[in-house]
Amino acid sequence: MERQIMSATQTPVRHRDTHADYLDLVREFPLRVLQDDDEHDEAVRIYSRLSARTSPPLTQGENEYVDALLRFIREYETPEPRTPRTPLKRLHYAMEQSGTTKAQLQEILGASRPLVSMILSGERALTVPHIRKLSKHFRVEASHFV
User: pTM of the predicted model, to two decimals?
Assistant: First the structure.
């Protein structure tokens, strides 16, 4: 009797191995933090396809996948403050937030003006000593700039 009441109050769900449906979708597009616009576009495409489907209705596994995917989409679309994803963008962000100038960065790194310009433009990568100095100055883990 209790089972009949519960099934009458639930949204219709297609019966299939819920775990298999969920895993099929994860294989198609893994659930993780979206890294760039291409991943975001693909996530939106999959979300749109699944959320528009009415027949057959989504299984419990598919519904759970859609819910999780939507969270990652919203997180990506939410205007910051979100930590930039590349070391160079993190450096620019740290400088902007702290008001550090290029001249001050020269002092922090013990580097010439041309080298600092090349680092900030992405022409040259940060070295391990640079990363240590930046980590100490901005009070963040060294991995922040790797």
Answer: 0.46
Q: How far apart are CA 35 and CA 131, in angstroms?
A: 23
Considering only CA atoms, which of 118, 36, 114, 29 is closest in space to residue 65? 29
Token pair for residue 144? 């922040």
The C-alpha atoms of residue 133 and residue 116 are separated, in whole angstroms, by 13
Q: Identity (one letter) of the amino acid at 26?
A: V
pLDDT (tens, 9 = 90+) of the chain, 146 residues, equals 333 333 334 444 444 556 888 999 999 999 998 888 999 999 999 999 999 998 889 999 999 999 999 999 998 888 766 666 788 999 999 999 999 999 999 999 999 999 999 999 999 999 999 999 999 999 988 888 88
Query: Which CATH superfamily, name and number, covers 87-145?
Result: lambda repressor-like DNA-binding domains (1.10.260.40)
Domain ranges of the chain: 2-77, 87-145
DSSP 3-state of 125: coil
